[in-house]
Amino acid sequence: MSFSNLLMKSGLTVAVRDAQAAVLMTATRQGHTIRGKPPGVARSLEQRIREENVEDPEVVARINIGFPQLKESRSAQLKKRLEHLKSQRSDKQLEQLARSNKLIIDLDKVQRTYVKTTGQHDLRLVADHYGIFEHLFGSAYFVPRVPLNISYQLDGDSLAPVYNGNVIKPTEAAKAPQIDFDGLVDPITGQAAGQDTYWTLVASNPDAHYTNGTAECLHWFIANIPNGKVSEGQVLAEYLPPFPPRGVGYQRMVFVLYKQQARLDLGSYQLAAADYGNLEKRTFSTLDFYRQHQEQLTPAGLAFYQTNWDESLTQFYHDVLKIKEPVYEYDFPKPYLTDQKFFPLKQPFNLYMDKHRDQKQVNKEYLERKLAKTHPFEGPKKPLRYPNAHPIRDVPSWLRTEIRKERLGTGRVQDY
Amino acid sequence: MLKITKICLASSATSTAQRSIALTAPRAIDQKWRAAKGLPENPNAFGPLTNLPDYTYLDGRPTPLGANQKRRLIKQQEIATRIVELSGELEFAKQRHERLKANAESEKQRLIRSKLKPKGHFLLKK
């Protein structure tokens, strides 16, 4: 009812005579009102966000640049699985082992079967989660068909394997890892290739470039690997250990294995021995490299790990890279400080004066006072056993407070 | 409730009718007849008595413009200048909109063309 009170009042007497009293009571509504549209009609948060972040499906469409995989039909797989199950159930020896709690499951065999079946798809999902494809290939992706076994040699007989994003310290990754993959198998059919195969291995770090945020740092480049023998490949860039700077957290080191159609001449990517530690020369772009050779190369294998700073990198920056070690720390905003007043009321004068001085100078003066009370050979004085039992006389009250707090170890001494 | 509505509507109509009466000079003229003839609403704003000079010289000299004539001429010039300016801005806005749309479309095409060649199951057809 949008009529004004005057009109309502003038017409009320007429309505009362003709209409019933119950009709009037329905004009008013008690209780709260729902703001906006009811829940079933209004847009949900997901819908609202989707409408605000409109994406063109043609632009964001992802492209598969990897190998397909030929598999037998599902009925054949099911038949094979059922036969395996039947043979397992009719195995008397297996039954005896199970009943006597002596059955040991061969986990290596389980791992091999997993790698052949769903392991590579899981690796693709993990790589998607860590942004490997997005930062290396843009809107492209691939399912790695060739399992890569990469491990770093540690002291003794220990190995640090590279899984799908585990953490390996720069100390453990100081030397070139051992790489093992089956180079004689066709990635599409899973059968023996029958002729010589050539592979290319690229190890790069998308997070390690200091000057170009979109480029990568090339850590290792081996081309024309014959039949999976990495040691016989052509090394275009010698292995450079990872060097994550202090304070930036974890960096990703990605190994990508490409299958070549034939022998390739990648001499233009050769890194001279004199430029081993030159980071600018190690600028690399996987997307540009692959775009240039995408008719001859197809990505077939993938492995990556994470690494962060440790103490051995100080020596590495000094000796190998020959640069000063960078340290990243958070740049906190400065606390707000009003202009200095001539008469700061209700402020302790010593704290107020120090607040407007250079903090480094204040720290220096504290250190000087501390060293002045320290004997050069006998060391600092022993702290008082009962600090408050020793009277502090003939000093101003603010200085008495300072001395008392210093003896107790509270107050400003904890700031230094 | 319907009766209340009727009474209120009647009151509103009465108030509106009373409040809408206006008495001004142009209203006394038969505007319908003038609109049918293509004449302006205000007879003094346009016409021979307004636009033509009040006198002429017998020897053919041009008559100087009157103050109001000059003011109307200047006003017309300003209006024409304003029309040209605003039309230019409108044309620029249209061209800019077309240019931005073409740029967005070309950028989208560039992104689509810069994608890598798809492989995957396409390799099986070789």
Automatic annotation (TrEMBL), chain A:
GO biological process: mitochondrial translation
Annotated compartments: Mitochondrion
Entry GO CC: mitochondrial inner membrane; mitochondrial large ribosomal subunit
Record's keyword terms, sorted: Coiled coil, Mitochondrion, Ribonucleoprotein, Ribosomal protein, Transit peptide
Family matches, as SUPFAM superfamilies: PEBP-like
Gene Ontology MF term list: structural constituent of ribosome
PANTHER family per UniProt: LARGE RIBOSOMAL SUBUNIT PROTEIN ML38, PHOSPHATIDYLETHANOLAMINE-BINDING PROTEIN
Family listed: Belongs to the phosphatidylethanolamine-binding protein family. Mitochondrion-specific ribosomal protein mL38 subfamily.
Protein name according to UniProt: Large ribosomal subunit protein mL38
Gene: mRpL38
